[in-house]
Design a protein that fits this description.
single chain; AmpC-like; CubicO group peptidase, beta-lactamase class C family; Beta-lactam/transpept-like; Beta-lactam-related; Beta-lactamase; alpha+beta; 10 helices
């Protein structure tokens, strides 16, 4: 009995020591990038099998009020919004309200070449339409309240970059069009549909369609870094990025999102699988993108990834399906990107698993 107790104690001690060592390595990795405890910072999470195994905050959430970030801080997630837009499209397909192979002319008859561009092309960034973030005239509307139709009208007559399906080129305009199609097909506002059908169902009580006017408790404030020091982020009206980049969330809510996907809480397995399928161009070349996710790998282990960048904020998440590991990072200064950090954290966790 004594030997059994001793053996259990040794195993438990070894597991705890390994976990502590991994935590120390991750702390050191993050602090090598987020070096200023009194500057804007970041929050990070690692979850395994749906439960957090690492969750920490570094730096300040509001420089003017001298308040620190915490693991419940609410961040703008930028282009990680595209995951929610893609799943919303698939939810409408499952309800019979649209099909991903429908041409966009079915919903927006006046869209140039709209009979050749499909919802699938928009989802996979293969439509060829001009990305509005690259247009010089963007500054003219950046702070205006725009309807989805006005946003689509802003870029729809720009010359196409290539024929639909000819190549993959990351494109925010496509996801704005998707948001407009969501509203036309459902009869609901995009933000209302996302809240009712995703946030509420997944229990994401601290996730929002972004606003600079609403009182949002525990909000992280965004910053830029200039030669003179930090400044408050540039103001943008969130109706401009719309369904391509206007959501806000927390570490724990994004874990609820990932768990909801894993548990098929929002979609049937067959429909959801479309989001995580690698698709092909017209010439048969496979692209590393599904619907709302980059489909890549860490040393040969498949991953589902996406980041985000919007004035004052950057975000990144990597999910490793084979191990049910989710790694996530948010930054409240666009001077600090969590992208490589999150990938390196995922790599560390995979290497740690191999040593056990």
């Amino acid at each position: 009995m004594q030997r059994l107790f001793l053996l259990c104690f040794i195993i438990l001690f070894s597991v705890r020591s390994n976990a502590q060592e991994l935590n120390r390595k991750i702390d050191s990795l993050i602090q090598s990038e987020f070096k200023e405890p009194n500057g804007p910072g970041g929050v990070f999470l690692i979850a395994k099998k749906g439960k957090p195994i690492y969750e920490k905050a570094f730096g300040m959430g509001n420089l003017e009020l001298d308040s620190k970030l915490n693991t419940g801080s609410v961040f703008q997630i930028g282009s990680m919004t595209k995951q929610f837009t893609a799943i919303a499209i698939l939810m409408l397909e499952e309800q019979g309200k649209l099909k991903v192979d429908y041409p966009i002319s079915k919903y927006i008859p006046s869209y140039p070449n709209g009979d050749k561009i499909t919802i699938h092309h928009l989802l996979t960034h293969t439509s060829g339409i001009r990305d509005f973030t690259k247009m010089k005239t963007l500054q003219d509307i950046a702070q205006k309240e725009m309807t989805p139709q006005q946003m689509v009208d802003f870029f729809k007559n720009e010359p196409a970059d290539f024929a639909p399906g000819e190549k993959f080129e990351y494109n925010n305009s496509g996801y704005v069009v998707l948001g407009y199609i969501i509203e036309l097909a459902s009869g609901e506002k995009y933000e209302d549909l996302i809240k009712k059908n995703i946030f509420d169902k997944a229990g994401m009580a601290n996730s929002y369609y972004a606003s600079d006017r609403k009182i949002i408790k525990n909000r992280a404030f965004g910053y830029h870094k200039k030669s003179s020091g930090y400044v408050n982020k540039t103001i943008i009206n969130f109706s401009v990025p719309f369904s391509s980049g206007s959501l806000m969330s927390t570490l724990d809510d994004m874990l609820k999102w990932q768990n909801a996907l894993n548990q098929n809480l929002l979609l049937s397995p067959k429909e959801e699988a479309k989001a995580f399928t690698k698709y092909k161009l017209n010439n048969g070349q496979e692209i590393e993108y599904g619907y709302g996710w980059h489909l890549k790998n860490i040393n040969g282990t498949p991953t589902r990834e996406h980041g985000g960048s919007i004035f004052g904020f950057k975000s990144m998440a990597v999910y490793i399906p084979s191990e049910d590991i989710y790694v996530l990072g948010f930054s409240n200064c666009d001077c600090n990107s969590p992208t490589q950090l999150v990938k390196d954290m995922g790599k560390m966790v995979l290497e740690d698993l191999k040593t056990k």
